[in-house]
Amino acid sequence: MSNIFLSIIYATSIFSPFLPEKSQDFYKSSPNKSLKYEKLSHLHFYFHNIVTGPNPTATRVAFSAITNTSSSLFGLVVVIDDPLTVGPEQSSKQVGRAQGMFAAASLTELSFSMVLNYVFTEGKFNGSSLSILGQNPLHSDVREMPVVGGSGCFRFARGYAEGRTHVIDWETGDAVVEYNVYVYHY
């Protein structure tokens, strides 16, 4: 009997390196030297929300009966792929796109819940993006929305975006918004 027991122990010790490891942990921590130095970047650009004309960059995808009678446009959902430019003119150099959606989510004021990415196509941040998720009350002079993440150069990003209306056509919805974005990243 003891020979069988010793044979089992011997076989287990020989083959154990080839058996898959069964870890009880669901994570693994590892030092990352590339995350050693955090930077603060300030980005400044203009967001062009174009609803009218031959090439709109924003389109209404949902609305309800209450949207048409509500002063806050409650229930309106708009999908966007808006240009981001260096200056307020639409002909200014484009540095990226604001892609995502916003929804009128207040019964009492014109305020949008923004879910979008600033996707950069120029300069040192080309190919990187910042993710924005927050409330945008349009009648406030300055609106602040959180940066909740990013990709590329902006991995692990956090910060905030300040929006100021540069010009808006209340009849059409066309608007230019100036953004100052302050973001910590590695």
Automatic annotation (TrEMBL):
Q: Which GO terms describe its biological process?
A: phenylpropanoid biosynthetic process
**Chief site of localization:** secreted
User: Which Pfam families does this entry report, sorted A to Z?
Assistant: Dirigent (PF03018)
Q: Name one GO cellular component term.
A: apoplast
In the UniProt record, the signal sequence range is: none
Q: Which UniProt keywords apply?
A: Apoplast, Secreted
Cellular location of this protein?
Secreted, Extracellular space, Apoplast
**Source species, domain of life:** Eukaryota
**Function, as annotated:** Dirigent proteins impart stereoselectivity on the phenoxy radical-coupling reaction, yielding optically active lignans from two molecules of coniferyl alcohol in the biosynthesis of lignans, flavonolignans, and alkaloids and thus plays a central role in plant secondary metabolism.
Its subunit composition reads:
Homodimer.
Family affiliation:
Belongs to the plant dirigent protein family.
- List the protein's name: Dirigent protein
Q: What organism does this protein naturally occur in? A: Heracleum sosnowskyi
